[in-house]
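Tokens in:
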């Protein structure tokens, strides 16, 4: 759709901000118990390590600060989450509930490869 081409940078920048903010919510859930919190039996690793990466990494991606590094780390976390928590429940993501992990993984990998773009602290977008 060529009619959207002039807005490519703006759309990417807004997407980066929204993805970062959405990811932060998962960290807020784990670290601070917001949005229903985590089940008491959730491993401490998930609550603190994954939660902090989601919270801080999501904020960094949203702000466009050290974006490539933060997005790459978030992508890796989501790849690990998929294989640790979902893959054993079935091969296909629709069976094992891992769609969100896969989507976050690949979107963060795209952001890591592309850079922050517009509306970022890094300022690498036109």
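Residues out:
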């Amino acid at each position: 759709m060529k009619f959207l081409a002039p807005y490519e940078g703006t759309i990417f920048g807004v997407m980066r901000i929204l993805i970062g903010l959405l990811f932060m919510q998962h960290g807020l859930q784990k670290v601070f118990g917001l949005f229903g919190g985590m089940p008491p039996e959730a491993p401490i690793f998930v609550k603190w390590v994954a939660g902090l990466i989601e919270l801080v990494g999501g904020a960094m991606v949203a702000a466009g600060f050290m974006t490539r590094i933060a997005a790459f780390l978030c992508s890796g976390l989501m790849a690990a989450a998929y294989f640790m928590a979902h893959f054993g429940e079935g091969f296909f993501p629709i069976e094992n509930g891992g769609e969100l992990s896969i989507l976050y993984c690949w979107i963060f990998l795209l952001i890591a490869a592309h850079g922050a773009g517009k509306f970022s602290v890094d300022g690498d977008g036109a």
